[in-house]
Amino acid sequence: MREDGEIAKPAILFLCLGNICRSPLAEGAARAAFARAGIDAKLDSAGTGDWHVGHAPDRRAQAEARRRGIDIPALRARQLSPDDFYDFDLILAADETNLRDARAIRPAGATADLMLMLDLLPGRKGQGVTDPYYGKDDGFASTWDDVEAIASALVAEFSAKG
Ligand code: 4NP
To answer: Which of 7, 43, 78, 134 is 20 to 30 A removed from 37 (C-alpha atoms)?
Structure first.
């Protein structure tokens, strides 16, 4: 609750490299978790790279999300921009490389907090969400397990704040 009585709407951006595997899965899991909790939140995802801008999530990511009951085919990849550091309260990077690349374009007066996704989970601080892109299809199941736990931790944090 803010001083003016309004409940602050959380604004969270999930960040990975291509924005077609980890961060759209994280966005999908978070959208479902916040909706289930009845918390209105601004949720989005982006990549540090531009190779996949405009593309739907990787078909293996879409399939894993569908297996868990979440539809993500309408999401479209976009690249992280300096404005994101003002438009979101929190930017959650999938791994250390994403974190370093985000820091490199972070404006001096940026207001968003920037940290690793797994910093939210006890015992996982400093770890990266494994990139499933070059691996076998079963890598996406463990990515989903990670992003679902991250989404639950976020909802718990923002429920407590509300
Ligand atoms: P993401 O995975 O960062 O989780 O979306 C990747 C997607 C694409 C590439 C690398 C990682 N790529 O090199 O095209």
So the answer is: 78
**5 within some domain:** no
Q: Could you tell me which of 56, 50, 42 has the C-alpha nearest to residue 14?
A: 42
Q: Whose CA is nearest to atom 10 of ligand 1?
A: 18
Active site includes 131? yes
Question: Residue 22 is part of a domain; what is its CATH number?
Answer: 3.40.50.2300
Residue type, 56: A
26 CB less than 6 Å from ligand 1?
Answer: no
Does some domain include residue 110?
yes
Query: How many whole angstroms separate alpha carbon 10 and alpha carbon 122?
Result: 21
- For residue 5, the model assigns a pLDDT of 47
- Domain for residue 59, yes or no? yes
Segment 104-125, tens digit of pLDDT: 999 999 999 999 999 999 999 9
Q: How many domains does the chain have?
A: 1
> What would the pLDDT profile of 47-100 be if each residue is shown by its tens digit?
999 999 999 999 999 999 999 999 999 999 999 999 999 999 999 999 999 999
Q: Which entry of 58, 84, 131, 146 is annotated as an active-site residue? A: 131
Torsion of CA 30, 154, 149, 105, to 10 degrees: 80
In a domain, 157, yes or no: yes
